[in-house]
């Protein structure tokens, strides 16, 4: 019995000595010392909590498939581009970040973004992207951004107002829009105050640029100077001014005490507006009793036209872990990641195959999302849409246009005088910055 005890003790001592030796040699026995994951910093903004939550879910899926990479996601909602530009100066810019198409020309020209051509392989299927969107992030024959989603403009119309005016279908030309607006403009109390305007006009350049191009005008020259005051460019703008001043069948948001075209439409102050697909969930949730539908923007000068707004993922040229940064970008804009990002109808996919798989073009999403309005006009419009860009100094051009065009709409000065004045001032400011 005693001998058995001694045998047992010897075994225990031997095991203890073995553990001590292993510990001294720093050899892991049960634990595996895995290398620390590579940190990739991603900066973005979030339009609302739902968008932020959705992106976090997609990033979690990426990390599960790439355990060696950890994404540090930073949300910047205030003065986003100012913050990004400041960080570039301080060499503290994120590895990957959102870049709006509006800001892209300037940043691409500053040699701070990584060209993506060398990373893109055939299996990434670049041809699957909508060409208009991808081209917006090309500069000097290099690709600097991969568009993650987009929005276009389409016509929203109040079905109840149309029925009351005996209109059976939405206008397909701008002449029809003006004639329909006369029937839809209503003074219910016959007191000289309009209760419902036919059309809600948004005078900002972002909503007027396609009108400038409808008659052959341009926003900017090849070297980035303002060019919207040409004779051709003024023709489309004049139609908007005439409807507002002569027909008196359109209104601006400030005329009816609202903050946006969507709100003007939702409150019944305008029977038609031209808005982006972002207005659909807003109208559905805020005005649940509103019966509305969507159609393509009416043609002007026998030409189809609309605007497209898009955002891309881009890479910092000074990123420390470019291979990992590319893996993140290629996942987020690849077929799998994009399908997860756009499957809820929150945004429109930039890949044609994803749009087809999710049923956007055939409008299968409408019933799935319980929406009365069709997404099809927004998807169709991307083929002929004008990207929301205005050269390397877009804010200068936009601000000068907006200030003077509103003045012309209000009749404070002739349209030509307003546009020539704003173009000259914009170019004076651009010249000072060159």
UniProtKB/TrEMBL annotation:
Keywords: Signal, Transport. GO terms for biological process: maltodextrin transmembrane transport; maltose transport. It holds the Pfam family SBP_bac_1. One of its GO terms (molecular function) is maltose binding. InterPro entries: SBP (IPR006059). CDD domains: PBP2_UgpB (cd14748). GO terms for cellular component: ATP-binding cassette (ABC) transporter complex, substrate-binding subunit-containing. Belongs to the bacterial solute-binding protein 1 family. This is ABC transporter substrate-binding protein.
């Amino acid at each position: 019995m005693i001998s058995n005890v001694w045998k047992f003790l010897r075994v225990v001592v031997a095991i203890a000595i073995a553990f001590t030796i292993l510990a001294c040699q720093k050899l892991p026995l049960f634990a595996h010392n895995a290398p620390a994951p590579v940190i990739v910093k991603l900066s973005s903004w979030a339009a609302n909590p739902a968008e932020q939550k959705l992106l976090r879910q997609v990033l979690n899926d990426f990390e599960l498939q790439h355990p060696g990479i950890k994404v540090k996601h930073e949300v910047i909602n205030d003065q986003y581009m100012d913050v990004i530009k400041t960080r570039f100066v301080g060499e503290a810019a994120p590895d990957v970040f959102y870049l709006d198409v509006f800001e892209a020309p300037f940043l691409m020209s500053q040699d701070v973004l990584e060209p993506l051509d060398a990373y893109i392989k055939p299996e990434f299927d670049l041809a699957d992207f909508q060409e208009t969107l991808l081209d917006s992030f090309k500069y000097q024959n290099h690709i600097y951004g991969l568009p993650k989603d987009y929005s276009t403009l389409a016509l929203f119309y109040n079905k109840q107002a149309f029925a009351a005016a005996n209109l059976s279908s939405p206008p397909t030309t701008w002449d029809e829009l003006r004639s329909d607006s006369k029937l839809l403009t209503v003074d219910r109390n016959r007191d000289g105050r309009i209760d419902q305007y036919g059309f809600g006009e948004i005078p900002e350049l972002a909503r007027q640029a396609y009108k400038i191009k409808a008659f052959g005008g341009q926003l900017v020259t090849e070297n980035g100077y303002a060019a919207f005051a040409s004779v051709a460019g003024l023709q489309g703008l004049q139609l908007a001014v005439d409807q507002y001043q002569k027909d008196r069948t359109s209104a601006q948001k400030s005329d009816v005490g609202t903050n946006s075209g969507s709100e003007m439409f939702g409150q019944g102050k305008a029977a038609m507006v031209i808005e982006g697909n972002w207005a659909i969930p807003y109208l559905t949730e805020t005005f649940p009793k509103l019966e509305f539908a969507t159609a393509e923007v009416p043609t002007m000068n026998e030409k189809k036209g609309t605007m497209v707004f898009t955002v891309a993922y881009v890479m910092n040229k000074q990123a420390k872990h470019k291979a990992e940064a590319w893996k993140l970008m290629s996942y987020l804009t690849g077929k799998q990641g994009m399908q997860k990002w756009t499957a809820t109808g929150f945004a429109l996919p930039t890949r044609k195959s994803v749009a087809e798989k999710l049923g956007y073009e055939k409008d299968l999403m409408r019933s799935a999302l319980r929406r009365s309005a069709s997404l099809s006009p927004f998807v169709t419009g991307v083929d002929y849409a004008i990207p929301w860009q205005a050269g390397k100094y877009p804010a200068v051009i936009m601000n000068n246009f907006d200030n003077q065009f509103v003045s012309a709409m209000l009749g404070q000065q002739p349209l030509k005088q307003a546009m020539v004045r704003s173009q000259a001032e914009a170019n004076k400011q651009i010249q000072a910055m060159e």
